[in-house]
Design a protein that fits this description.
The protein is elongated. It is mainly β and 382 residues long.
Length: 382
């Protein structure tokens, strides 16, 4: 059975037609969710499978295509589509394969086929011809008319505005700047950038270019990297998934002990569905647990119970048949200093002398004490 699962997605992706560098291309994206169905961490890799006449170079994956999946963990992969200018109009399709890195030939899952269409390019706009009278006027050497011709050409062809620099701005601010200057804005995703999501990383035309009113400025915008949901996972596994799978830096913060297993992640910042800059920092707050307090043995039953309850721990008092002083603590089930979940139960072993040397030991009762119980000394008897 495959380790990974790719749920159904919409069967068709919508593409838009864009002009980039005087060439027409179709662009779009489709998002796939891949889940590790196993109960253990697993390295997985996603590959794009072009179908029919589709070309492999049209597709790319945001971020890393190989990632570390935690047990029962899920990653979202966004496949970017950008067709070649010479691609023929028509219907095309693709699917995605998720493979286990340690057994790619046998352990894999495939997505449903996703279709997309490449639209036919718009018809070319015929070039404007200069009126016949301009040529007649120039040919006749009429100076006044020639001056008018020059004025017409300057008016129609040289009246553009200067494109401002918006690189480094957030996309909302950049769009405001450009639309205020009466330019049209087209976005283009930049999945490889390490800038914060929404940062403009490039523009075409560049700063200082002359562009007519309504002219198009294409902006490349950083997409950032998807932040995994790793709450309730062990810190070591969560850190590995974030560092190795997405290149994030990880900051550990000790939170309050709340009853989770020690080093369990209880919150993260940023949290899904946020995206963060590649190589950015994700803060993980963990439940540190509580340390089993130091108990000097032998000691009294009351002193040991008090120390454990003060640390937020419960107690199970067990009798152990042994000659000597009764009700004295002679052993503890969990080594002092061990980190355990707050509210855990720690075993104490209490000496219970035999009723007589001849009769030996009989059955001995057990006492359960919760962390919040009011405990008074109770003798264990046979």
């Amino acid at each position: 059975m495959p380790s990974f699962e790719i749920p159904d997605i919409p069967p068709k992706a919508a593409l838009k037609t864009e002009t980039q560098g005087n060439q027409t291309v179709s662009t779009g994206a489709v998002t796939f969710t891949v889940t590790n169905k196993t109960g253990q961490g697993l390295a997985g890799r996603v590959t794009i499978e072009p179908q029919g006449e589709a070309k492999a170079e049209w597709f790319s994956v945001d971020g890393e295509s190989e990632r570390q999946f935690i047990a029962n963990g899920t990653h979202t992969f966004t496949v970017r589509i950008k067709t070649a200018p010479e691609a023929k109009a028509g219907a095309y399709s693709l699917k995605v394969r998720a493979v286990a890195v340690n057994d790619p030939d046998n352990d894999f899952a495939e997505s449903p086929v996703v279709a997309f269409d490449i639209a036919a390019p718009p018809p070319e706009t015929p070039k404007k011809k200069l009126p016949w009278w301009i040529f007649a006027a120039i040919g006749g050497g009429v100076a006044v008319v020639a001056g008018v011709v020059v004025a017409v050409i300057l008016f129609t062809g040289g009246g553009g505005s200067t494109v401002p620099n918006v690189i480094g701005n957030q996309i909302a601010q950049a769009e405001t700047t450009l639309t205020t200057a009466k330019f049209a804005v087209v976005r283009e995703d930049d999945a490889a950038s390490d800038q914060a999501p929404g940062t403009v990383t490039g523009q075409d035309p560049a700063e200082g270019a002359e562009l007519d009113e309504g002219g198009q400025v294409t902006l490349r915008v950083a997409q950032g990297v998807e932040v995994l949901n790793i709450v309730n996972q062990p810190y070591a596994a969560a850190e590995s998934a974030l560092r190795l799978g997405h290149g994030f830096q990880v900051q550990r913060v000790a939170g309050p002990a709340g009853g989770k297993a020690p080093e369990t992640v209880i919150s993260q910042d940023p949290a899904p569905p946020a995206r963060a800059a590649r190589g950015g920092t994700v803060k993980l707050t963990v439940d540190p647990g509580v340390a089993v307090p130091a108990i000097t043995i032998p000691t009294t039953q009351q002193a040991a119970v008090n120390a454990l309850q003060a640390a937020g721990l419960g107690v199970r008092i067990n009798g152990r048949c042994q000659a000597g002083i009764s009700d004295q603590v002679i052993d503890i089930g969990t080594r002092p200093g061990t980190m355990v979940a707050k509210g855990s139960t720690i075993d104490l072993f209490i000496r219970v002398p035999p009723r007589s040397p001849l009769l030996g030991c009989g059955s001995i009762s057990i006492i359960e004490v919760r962390p919040t119980d009011r405990f008074l000394m109770r003798s264990l008897t046979q």
